[in-house]
Each structure stands twice: as structure tokens, then as C-alpha cells.
Amino acid sequence: MRKELGFSGLEAAVILIAFVVVAAIFGYTMLSTGFFATQRFQEVTYAGVKQSTSTVITDGFIRGTYSESNGGLQSLSISISVPETGEAIDLSEMVYYYVRDSGSGGEIPLSAVTPHTGLLSPGASTRIRLDLDAANMEGPMVGGSFSLEIKPPLGASTLIQRTLPTAFAGGYIS
Prior knowledge:
Layout: H1 9-53, E1 57-58, E2 62-67, E3 72-81, E4 89-90, E5 95-100, E6 105-108, E7 113-114, E8 119-120, E9 125-131, E10 145-151, E11 158-163, E12 171-173
């Protein structure tokens, strides 16, 4: 009987082919996972950019109408805009949340907001009037404070906090 001490060339080729096939499958799996992760990263990045550019900023002064006999601050008028690099915002999807003197408050219905429809384009500005009387909300009296949060449908909200001066009779609120 004859003993074989080594591999034949055919056996070595079969083992080499098996290693190559396993390595190819492993490499394909790693590439697929990498492509999937890259696609998810791209989606997350685009969503983050969209949220950060979908913001509303206040530009200019806040103006208020006031009546001592009718319960204080009656309405607010605010100029808002979207930055040049931002996304257009639908005014009918905006949310205005009002709080008086760090106490009661709530969402101002769009029926008490003028204008409450339309599209605010990047770089454009509009003056919003919030009628607190029509919203059945009490405004602060002289010396009192209020907070107004303006929430666009997507992106960061803008918070405005003011205290009415002791000599306030209507006009600009600093």
C-alpha cells in the first residue's frame, strides 16, 4: 500500500475556491451593510437640515392693544419671517401657544389669528395679529407678563416672553 503525504493540486484548488467564495459572500454582506448605513445616515442628515431650516424668527417690534376696562392686553401684533435658507411654512399649520403670568394659557385658535392661511416663503415677512379677546383669553394687566410660543409645523419653535411696563397703555412692548 502506498501512503500519500500531501495534498494533490486538485484538493488545494478546491479549498482555495471555497475560501474565495466564503470571502466574496462576506465582502458582499459587508458592502450591503455599509450601503444601507450610508443611506440611513443620508436620510437622517437631510431630515436634520430640513428641521433646522424650518424655523420662524421674529423681526421687528411686538405691538399690543390694551384696555384697562376690558381686562388688560387685548391683542398682539408680531412680524415673523423665514430665513433666506429656510423652507416655506404653511401659516394654516402654525401653532401659537399663549400663557399669561406664568399661569393659565393655551393654544390660540387659528380663527383668532390674522392671517391664518397662506404660505410664508424664505426671506419673506408677514405681520401676524393674535386677537386674545376673540380667543377668549385674558391678557395680562400692567406689570404682568406673558409668554408666546410660535411653533411651525416642522422645526424649532420661537419663544417670546415679555412684561408689560407699568405705564403701558398700548403700543410697542419692549
